[in-house]
Specification:
alpha+beta, 83 residues
Length: 83
């Protein structure tokens, strides 16, 4: 089990996320709140529980990759409009 942060950036009601998966709801909430402070287009945030493996930690305001995740993950949520 892990937690994934998601954002809404428009009025369609769609939620956008990326491949970041955290071990705790608190880490995911802190990361998405930090993202909201940097992105002016974010209208809403949420954290969703999922079955994906944990691949990141959020420690002292920065991302740390964990486990055997080899791919680099961008901060931009997939499917979101360009900013």
């Amino acid at each position: 089990m892990s937690f994934k942060p998601e954002v809404q950036t428009d009025d369609t009601g769609k939620w956008y996320g990326n491949a970041l998966r955290f071990g705790t709801r608190e880490e995911a909430e802190a990361q998405v709140q930090g993202l909201m402070m940097r992105w002016f287009a974010v209208k809403e945030t949420r954290v969703v529980e999922c079955d994906d493996p944990v691949n990141y930690r959020y420690v002292d305001g920065r991302l740390e990759q964990v486990g055997s995740a080899a791919a680099s993950v961008a901060e931009a949520p997939s499917g979101s409009p360009p900013l």
